[in-house]
Amino acid sequence: MKTLILYFSAERGTTAGVAKDAAEALGADLYAITPEKPYTAADLNYRNPLARCNREFFAKKDVPTAGRIESFADYDRVLIGFPIWYGCAPLVVSSFCKGYDWTGKTVAAFATSGGSGIGRTAEKLRPFLSGADFKGARLVRSGAEVAAWMAE
């Protein structure tokens, strides 16, 4: 089974670290989901009601992403990692997912979070993974946790 780990990581890099460790443990390929316009620290300051992250969330508009996975069809299993924003995946993640055919793929999502729970992440992400066998979402702290979950 060929595995791809997609991930979006904010300024602290927590999700990137978990994704890289999971990829190593699972022998998976890695791909970083990046917005066309990179986030700055000010963009991510959710305490500021005018910060970009807040404007995007409340506008519910797609966040354009940079790059494309040309070999996406080659993967059987796709893991998607991200920090929790507003009780779900950041909009850049769902925007990215809209551009691919998920039919026949086994998909699982893992989230990292400094304090909030998993929320309704799986429920909110599922519509963007049409045709996939979606295994749900879990809050994790390490790549080893992701690898152990995939071994279940």
Short account of what is shown:
The chain has 152 residues and is an alpha/beta fold. The protein contains five helices and seven strands, in the order E-H-E-E-H-E-E-H-E-H-E-H. The strands form two sheets. It has a five-stranded parallel sheet with strand order 2-1-5-6-7. Strands 3-4 form a two-stranded antiparallel ribbon.
Tell me what you see in this structure.
It is a single chain. Helix content is 28%, strand content 22%. The chain has a single domain (3-151), classed as Rossmann fold (3-Layer(aba) Sandwich). The chain contains five helices and seven strands; from the N terminus they run E-H-E-E-H-E-E-H-E-H-E-H. Strand 6 (106-112), helix 4 and strand 7 (133-139) form a beta-alpha-beta unit. It is of the alpha/beta class and 152 residues long. Helix 1 (14-26) packs across helix 5 (143-151). A five-stranded parallel β-sheet has the order 2-1-5-6-7. Strands 3-4 form a two-stranded antiparallel sheet. The longest helix is centred in the N-terminal third of the chain and has 13 residues, at 14-26. The protein has helices spanning 14-26, 52-59, 91-97, 121-125, 143-151; strands at residues 3-7, 29-32, 34-35, 65-66, 77-83, 106-112, 133-139.
